[in-house]
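Lab notebook: predicted structure, single chain.

Context: the supervisor wants predicted structures on file for every construct in the current expression panel, including those that have not yet been purified. This is the next one on the list. No modifications to the sequence; it matches the entry in the shared construct table.
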Amino acid sequence: MNMKTQNQVVFYTIKGSTIKKFLILDCITGTGIYYAFKIISSSVLVGVLGSIVCTEGIKRLPNKQVR
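Prediction complete. Output recorded below exactly as produced.
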C-alpha cells in the first residue's frame, strides 16, 4: 500500500479595512485608554484591565453602517 502525502498551501486574505480597524482600535485606542486608567489609578494592573475591558466593549457596540 503506497500512500502519497499531499502538500497543501493555505492562503488567507485579510481586508485592508480589517487591518486598519485593528490598528486604530486595539493599538491606538487601547494604548490611550491604558494610559488614562494608569494615570488615574497609578496602577499598571488597573490600566491593563481597563484597556482590555474598554476595547472589547467598543468592539461589541452595534455598528451604524448605511447600506
